[in-house]
Every structure is written in C-alpha cells, then in structure tokens.
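Postdoc handover notes: sequence design on the structure in folder B. Input tokens:
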C-alpha cells in the first residue's frame, strides 16, 4: 500500500468514527481520530458531545504509551484554545506524537491555522488536506454555522413525477417508497430540528421522529401564527420526542396554555418569519435544521435565506389535480431565467425513487 492510500484510508476511518455522534455534537463539529504505529491502529476516538473530551483525547487515552512517535489522523484541525476542555495540541505534544495528518483546517477565523502552527512549532510534522472534500461534507453544517452564526438549513420534500406533494384532497401518505422514507429518518437523525407549519399539522398529523434510525430524535418545531391547531396530535406526545411551537406574541392564549399543559414548549416571537425562527434556533446552539414543511412555508424559508441545501425525492408516479399542492409556493419570480439553480447537484436512486440534491446559491 502506498503511504497516500494509507493516509486516505485512515482519514476515512476518522470520518466513520466521527459519525457515531451524528446529530449529538451541536454546536461542536463531528470529529474522529485514529493513532497509528507503523500500519497498526493503536488508538481510536470520537467527540461524543459538547462538553465532553475531544476525539484526540479519547484516542490518546486508548493508545497510552504507544502514542509516542506515532502518526495521528484527525478530520479537523486540533484545537489550540481553552474551551470547555484544554487544548488538544498540548495533549498531542505531551504524548510525543511524531506526525499529525489533518483532514481540514478549522473554519473558525479565530482559531483557524493556529492548531497546526502550534504543533509545527513543537517540532511535529503536520500534513493538511487528506480527503478534504469528504471532511468538509461531513461538517458542512458546522462550517456554515461558524461562518454565518446560524444553523444550516436543508429543505426536503417528496413529490410525484408531476410535481405534487399531496393529492388535491391534501392526502399525502405516502409519496415515496420505504427506502426513501428510511433515508429521511436517517437524515432527521443528523439534524438538530425539523420544522413544519401549522397546516401540515392540521392535514397530516405527522410524527416526525427517526423511527429507530437513531436512538435520539431532533426537536420537532411547528411554526404557526394562528395557533389554530388540533387539541390532539402526534406532535404533542412529548414523551416520544420534544416539540416546540413558535408563534407570534399574543396568539391564541387558550391554545398556548393547552399545549404547555401537554409539555409542549411554546415561544412567542415578535414576528414569525423563517429568519426569526432560525435566529431563535441559533441561540439554542443548533447546527442544522430540516425544513419538512409544505410549499407555503418552504417558499418563505427560501425567500428568507433559511435554506442552503435541497433534497428532493421524486416518485415515478402521477397524481394530477389542478389544486394539488407543489413543493415550493410563491417566490415572486416571473421569468424562467430567474429560476434558482442548484449548485453541486447530484442524482441517485433510493429504492424506486430518485433523489436530487444540491445547494442554493449563497
Ligand atoms: N410531500 C411532502 O414532502 C410534504 C411535506 C410537508 C407537507 N406536505 C403537504 O403540504 C400541505 C401543506 O402545505 P403548506 O404550504 O400549507 O405547509 P405548512 O408546512 O403547514 O406551512 C404553512 C403554514 O405555516 C405557518 N407559518 C408560520 N409562519 C409562516 C410564514 N412566515 N410563512 C408561511 N407560513 C407560515 C402557517 O401556519 P398557521 O396557518 O397555523 O398560522 C401556515 O399555514 C399538506 O397537504 C401536506 O400534506 C407534503
Ligand atoms: Zn480539541
């Protein structure tokens, strides 16, 4: 095996380890670390959640004395500052490692490059940029949050081949097949919140959990101005997963009280827009939110700059219906030349359905 291949392989192992904490690290990144002597792995670790030790510390603990003279692989630049835990750079230096291979530089301008500099100053050989694209992809929400100080927004919808997300009656279970729905459950497991609007609660009574794809469920968020919501809904069963209802100041006090009695958190914002909702979720340290709403709210979210990535599942079937809803409502665009292009798009089959994903222009 050439050294380059070996480095890439070890970095992939770091990413695998990092993903064990998928959806659990906010506001921190997903990080995995592997320590190698020759070609033998002598220690591994990952960052389980904010407040707990970083991946490097777990890997060093596992390797013990065998970290002396070893090569350390880590998908994100080691930290060089005192946060909730002491800097990993100092731990690596103290352990006497010889070489550190870093997947990507930390995007935070306040720390970016300093961890690498510190290690080099201590005489450790540092190589940067192995499997960088995969490293960037895994932590895209973290990178976005660091740069923009708000969570990364993903809009996901399922539509028929003729572009409908429900029949004209509003019936929508199910547009896609089992595999695509399982894929959505996994997607939820990696997000901190799922957002829908009041209308989707009234029409679909959704559950919005990971259905066992993970032992953790994201926060379920309902945006409703009217608070004209059903007294009984799956989303109000908070022993399954927590639910937050965002509304406007003074809306429907009786409903607010009823929801609070059921254990649903209700927060009144001065104006209920996707932008305000995102600002509120940013305060909760969230990295990523999944918009699983209908077309009206999806259009508002896009217009408000709250959507960065789009995942569209397309089912090979036709429902028709002039009044059947479509995934994105009014955006005020009048010419096809104004259409928002998806960047870095890719297509793949998930069971019988097609998944098209891509990024909106920043
Ligand atoms: N196939 C799919 O992927 C999929 C996914 C989700 C939904 N659906 C379908 O979509 C349909 C519902 O579509 P919808 O567009 O009415 O969805 P929605 O997700 O309920 O969004 C609209 C609702 O959001 C609330 N809202 C709060 N602030 C808003 C703002 N600033 N801008 C816009 N809305 C705001 C309003 O609730 P209040 O009226 O309570 O104030 C509004 O009625 C249903 O038939 C459902 O089956 C399909
Ligand atoms: Zn660290």
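Designed sequence:
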């Amino acid at each position: 095996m050439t050294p380059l291949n070996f480095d890439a392989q070890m970095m992939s192992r770091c990413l695998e380890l990092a993903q064990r904490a998928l959806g659990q690290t906010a506001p921190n990144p997903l990080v995995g670390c592997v320590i190698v002597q020759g070609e033998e792995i002598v220690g591994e670790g990952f960052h389980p959640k904010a407040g707990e030790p970083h991946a490097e510390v777990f890997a060093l603990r596992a390797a013990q004395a065998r970290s002396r003279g070893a090569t350390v692989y880590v998908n994100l630049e080691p930290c060089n500052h005192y946060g909730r835990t002491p800097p990993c750079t100092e731990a690596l230096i103290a352990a006497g490692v010889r070489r550190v291979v870093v997947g990507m530089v930390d995007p935070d301008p306040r720390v970016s490059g300093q961890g690498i500099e510190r290690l080099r100053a201590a005489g450790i050989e540092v190589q940067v940029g192995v499997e960088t694209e995969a490293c960037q992809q895994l932590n895209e929400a973290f990178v976005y949050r660091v740069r923009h100080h708000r969570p990364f927004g993903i809009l996901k919808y399922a539509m028929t081949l003729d572009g409908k997300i429900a029949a004209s009656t509003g019936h929508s279970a199910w547009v896609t097949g089992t595999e695509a729905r399982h894929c959505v459950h996994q997607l939820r497991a990696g997000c901190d919140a799922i957002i829908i609007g009041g209308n989707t609660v009234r029409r679909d009574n959704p559950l919005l959990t990971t259905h066992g794809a993970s032992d953790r469920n994201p926060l379920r968020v309902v945006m409703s101005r009217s608070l004209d919501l059903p007294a009984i809904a799956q989303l109000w069963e908070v022993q399954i997963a927590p639910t937050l209802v965002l509304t406007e100041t003074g809306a429907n006090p009786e409903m607010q009280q009823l929801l609070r009695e059921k254990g649903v958190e209700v927060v009144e914002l001065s104006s209920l827009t996707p932008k305000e909702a995102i600002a509120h979720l940013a305060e909760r340290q969230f990295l990523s939110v999944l918009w699983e709403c209908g077309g009206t709210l999806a259009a508002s979210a896009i217009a408000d700059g709250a959507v960065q990535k789009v995942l569209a599942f397309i089912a090979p079937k036709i429902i028709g219906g002039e009044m059947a809803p479509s995934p994105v409502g009014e955006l005020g665009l009048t010419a096809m030349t104004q259409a928002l292009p998806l960047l870095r798009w890719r297509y793949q089959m998930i069971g019988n359905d097609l998944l098209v994903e891509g990024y909106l222009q920043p």
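Context for whoever picks this up: Residues 3-143 form a domain with the Cytidine Deaminase; domain 2 fold (CATH 3.40.140.10). Don't rerun without checking with the PI first.
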